[in-house]
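name: query_chain
kind: protein
chains: 1
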Amino acid sequence: MRSWYADENALVRQRIQESMLEHIALLLNDLIGEAVREGTLYTPYPDMAGQIILALMVRLGDAFAQILFAPDRSAEICETTRRIVAAYNDAIERVLGAAAGSLQLMMRKPSTSGLSQEVWDDPSAHAGLAQYVAQLAPYRNCSGGNHPGRGAPALL
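structure:
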């Protein structure tokens, strides 16, 4: 992932983002327009909403990358990430004219009781994220490769 954000890949990132805006935004615009006609969404700009939402999602991905590559602040990471997701979620709801709280950008995980529970409210998820961030520590501020001192491991 670090190589994706390397300076030498800036042009590739820009071209891929432009292609996304050109193709995927049109599909989103169609879906949003249909929802507006059905009365589910209330945006005055259904022909522009897909492009705006896609731009927000690209920036959200960039924000996550900044968190991953930042100096270790594991005590703050969950709260910072939660706030970023909440802010982008709110922005997308506003672009769409959706009811507040009607969209969820992050997946929920099922609890043992069968009810949905947000990952942010699950202390084990916080510990898991902090543990993952701690594992990334040897890879920070490096470039190339997938071993300590030579770049971050693949996220997949």
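note: The two ends are 10 Å apart (CA to CA).
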